[in-house]
């Protein structure tokens, strides 16, 4: 009796699993949204903040502006030459109250406490007139 109940139950489970796999296989995979390692608000003009962050950095860093599709937002890549896999960027946004928000986004950050995160915050603070 147990065999007669288990075989149909297992077949049902197998069919359900196959339909789930088929469904997952047809849906596009979207990468998770990256959370900033840190964010700061500055009172300097937007253009001067972007220009300062995009200026050449000390040797050992590659700095480039990445085209943005969102108005009032600019992305500045800031990557160490010795670790190009450390994808990192500033995202500079105009805030309606007239301030500028800078988000630091880096794959593999440990709560914004890594040496690169600290270097990036110091650079942003200098550009923003802090410290």
User: What is the N-to-C succession of helices and strands?
Assistant: HEHEEEEH
- N-end to C-end Cα span: 79 Å
- Number of helical segments? 3
Structural class: alpha+beta
What is the overall shape?
globular
| Percentage of residues in strands | 25-35%
Estimate percent helicity: 25-40%
Mean pLDDT: 80
Strand element count: 5
Explain how this protein is built.
The structure is a single chain. With 131 residues, this protein is an alpha+beta fold. 36% of the residues lie in helices and 25% in strands. It has a five-stranded antiparallel β-sheet, with helices on one face. A hairpin with a 5-residue loop joins strand 4 (88-94) and strand 5 (100-106).
Summed up, what is this model?
This protein is an alpha+beta fold.
Tag the structure with descriptive keywords.
single chain; about 130 residues; alpha+beta; five-stranded antiparallel sheet; 5 strands; about 25% strand
Topology:
Layout: H1 2-26, E1 38-42, H2 46-54, E2 61-66, E3 73-80, E4 88-94, E5 100-106, H3 115-127
Antiparallel strand pairs: 1-5, 2-3, 3-4, 4-5
